[in-house]
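Sync notes, pocket subgroup
Present: LS, DG
LS reminded everyone that the earlier model was apo-only. Rerun requested with 6-O-phosphono-beta-D-fructofuranose included. Inputs:
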Amino acid sequence: MYMSMFKRKIECIGVLTSGGDAPGMNAAIRAVTRAAIANGFRVMAVYRGYEGLINNEIREFSTEDVSNIIQRGGTILKTARSRDFETPEGRRKAYDNMLLRGIDALVVIGGNGSLTGARIFAEEYDVPCIGLPGTIDNDLNGTDSTIGYDTTLNTIMECVDKIRDTATSHERIFFVEVMGRDAGFLAQNSAIAAGAEAAIIPEDATGANQLEHFIGRGIRKSKNSSIVLVSESPRCGAMYYAERVKREYPEYDVRVSILGHLQRGGSPSAGDRILASRLGVGAIQAILEGQRNVMIGIKNDEVVYVPFSNAIKSDKPVKKELIDDLAVLSI
Ligand code: F6P
């Protein structure tokens, strides 16, 4: 175990994006860079997430390097899911490169896996790490929303609006599969936003029953088409439910649409740009206050510091009220 060199004054801050990209990550990079420089820090941009820290793909950023990026999807720093960073040898190389490049603290923009990596690294080497919640899945605790979630909700809603046109014309049931990894926020809330008939999400054990109720109601009596949002799942995705309905209710004409990676692209919404900007400024404020090993979140419109251990617990609840609302609204 290394003794920390980080008791000294922080002068240079590294920033990286890691894991699945999310719209708004660029706005976060911009905010971290500009807020850092405004407060007298130097900024080192690390490319390809933790891979870049291990392979020394690092260069200094000025305020101009983050010009004209707030509106762009993806991440200008590139991203990766680093297997090497999961090993002690990989983290050792990352630490050595931080020493080499004079990086005193790290801002990590990413989801659950990325912040878990930051937590382990921070504990192993006593490196001050600040996390920003960057994931379309919205599955980090302690923040009302994550960077990218709002844009992706809007993207899904627009796709479902289009699917609705053809579903109505052909009088079909569509199962639309959306991302979210193990979380149902995207499916549940896009179902409400798009006026879908049901959502099947991992957090709601009654999801499969919901499907039965919905079929049992005899959807064609009142509606000429239906749309069911389904959270991605290796075993029980949209295909599984479509096959079941085809088998059990052969009178229905069923189709599946898996939206896939288009959900991660596109220009960030105003909500995501503002969220990312506030969180980026919050990260630098946290460093100035001597905070370390926390994720910056926004709860009830206030910037909050969430210890990594709380942020990465995979138990952020989908509000029961939203499940009930969808049931009422889809009669
Ligand atoms: O975590 C973001 C996410 O888009 C999940 O919703 C999805 O399960 C996963 O990443 C897909 O990862 P990949 O782009 O590596 O296929």
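DG: The longest helix spans residues 149-170.
LS: The CA atoms of residues 54 and 92 lie 8 Å apart.
Action: DG to write up.
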